[in-house]
Design goal:
alpha/beta, 6 helices, binds magnesium ion, 12 strands, Cysteine/glutathione ABC transporter ATP-binding protein/permease CydC, binds adenosine-5'-triphosphate
Length: about 230
């Protein structure tokens, strides 16, 4: 179950409804993302952006249609192989009741303490290393993190995992302008050789994406390069 070196994504006529929901969250979505391409996903709240990213992680399977990575159906991947292929910054970041170290090691159990420290510094979370450092207990019964700290922790997790496909759901939501540009610069460096789908509300920086899709009500309503749109 080695990680593929690169991931091309094909989404074919995917329709999905959450259990108990009459309306489809996604309705006939088709999207082709060649390996190494960067796609920005825009659209107003509730249009299905996060659902689309979550289907790519197999949190749920489509009701209709299929998703392929490198011409292999997602359903044919083993769970470990999928995990190795994908780095995720989810919209809602979950903090485990565990040490800072274990919260970072989730998807990359082999990272050393010095690698973890360097990564915390890169995402501007070096302050967390004061006091008990990586042994500090987080979550329930321990230290809580602010919304912005949580997002940066999630970015650190995703970068430590270093997979060929990155799924980023508003990675800089709620960050101040300085921290946002720090994180975006960091992401820009690591995104270079990866396939990226990024949900964003920022219109600035869209020219850096190869493809932009605009969703509405479970559909893709606009699609093209920055120049075309
Ligand atoms: P936002 O910009 O606010 O994050 P979004 O585009 O990411 O919105 P989704 O979270 O994908 O939107 O939600 C799409 C639709 O599915 C919405 O109508 C939402 O209410 C519904 N939905 C999302 N998650 C669930 C769930 N777990 N169970 C039932 N319905 C859900
Ligand atoms: Mg969302």
């Amino acid at each position: 179950d080695a990680a593929p070196e690169s991931v091309a994504v094909q989404i074919k006529e995917v329709t999905f409804a959450y259990d108990g929901q009459a309306q489809n969250a996604l309705d006939g979505i088709s999207l082709t993302v060649p390996a190494g391409q960067h796609v920005a996903i825009l659209g107003r709240t509730g249009c299905g952006k996060s659902t689309l990213l979550q289907l790519l992680t197999r949190a749920w399977d489509p009701r209709l249609g299929e998703i392929l990575f490198n011409d292999t159906a997602l359903t044919d991947f083993s769970e470990p192989a999928l995990r190795k292929a994908i780095s995720v910054v989810p919209q809602r970041v979950h903090l485990f009741s565990a040490t800072l170290r274990d919260n970072l090691l989730l998807a990359s159990p082999n990272a050393s303490d010095s690698e973890l420290g360097a990564m915390l510094e890169q995402v501007g979370l070096q302050k967390l290393l004061e006091g008990d450092g990586l042994n500090e207990w987080l979550g329930e019964g321990g230290r809580q993190l602010s919304g912005g700290e949580l997002r940066r922790l999630a970015v650190a997790r995703a970068l430590l995992h270093d997979a060929p496909l990155m799924l980023l759901d508003e990675p800089t939501e709620g960050l101040d302008a300085t921290t946002e540009s720090q994180i975006l610069d960091l992401l820009a460096q690591v995104m270079k050789n990866k396939t990226v789908l990024m949900v964003t509300h920022r219109l600035r920086g869209l020219a850096n994406f190869d493809q932009i899709i605009v969703m509405d009500n479970g559909h893709i309503i606009e699609q093209g390069s920055h120049a075309e749109l």
